[in-house]
């Protein structure tokens, strides 16, 4: 059942999508709601299953996992797909997986420490006789944007994958704090203190340092898309001339488009993809028309891949 959301609900949901760890007072100020209204609505979204949870966003380059790989898989049968989904949940490389509604059956987002780890993992994965087809995407640059369709006041995004890699020192205290955030990115400091046996003051200090060092980029809400009444669609783009100039042009387009919330660049085909967050076919169609008009002088191929949601059993820190 799809719930009818009021403009106020859409604005709050869009803000929580990008800033879910902010204080209730901070969220209230940015959304022009009272603190009590924010509290009531968040509890309502969670109770009704509109929001399924909150997770931290990590810069994997900084913690020694510089390789992100997205695998699209097709299976010989629904039974093989179901069996695979059950087995992959505890995978130490898996951030998330989800159903694909056309061409492929499943996507997986994976992280690796080095090329050998990735090669060994993929060789083992693709030796599965139940896999009928696959596509491997290896982004070298990826940016996440807020939900802009409600004119979100804060339109800055997260650059999750950087071309320049730099590993930061990752302490045991940092791991404990992030593990608490993994279960609920809106968890209170006092509750993190109970779980980690650390003082609240020390936790506040480490959270601040994790952000300053670019390890903890923020937090996000994830939704039950059917109840929310929105859809995710991947737009695979293969541009003949993927020069730096055209990459910047693609980024500029993605940043200003109201329904695009992710852009990534790859060396292989396709060499770019955008993730579109839309309520209906009209919004998707309009986005595609604007893209075609913007890049009408550039030779390119487009492929539309609808997906069920942003992912199942999301585990943004699988190595902990």
List keywords for this structure.
alpha+beta, Alpha-Beta Plaits, Arc Repressor Mutant, subunit A, 3 domains, 6-stranded antiparallel β-sheet
Describe this structure in words.
By secondary structure, the protein is of the alpha+beta class. It has three domains: 61-140, Lrp/AsnC effector binding domain/regulation of amino acid metabolism (RAM) domain (Alpha-Beta Plaits, 2-Layer Sandwich), CATH 3.30.70; 141-163 and 225-307, Lrp/AsnC effector binding domain/regulation of amino acid metabolism (RAM) domain (Alpha-Beta Plaits), CATH 3.30.70; 169-213, Arc Repressor Mutant, subunit A (Orthogonal Bundle). Helix content is 38%, strand content 27%. The chain contains eleven helices and twelve strands. The protein has helices at residues 7-19, 24-31, 35-47, 78-88, 115-125, 172-183, 189-196, 200-212, 225-228, 244-256, 281-294; strands at residues 51-58, 67-75, 94-99, 106-112, 131-137, 139-144, 158-161, 216-223, 231-239, 260-266, 272-278, 300-307. The strands form three sheets. A six-stranded antiparallel beta sheet has the order 7-6-10-11-9-12. Strands 3-4-2-5 form a four-stranded antiparallel beta sheet. Helix 2 packs across helix 3. It is globular and about 55 Å long.
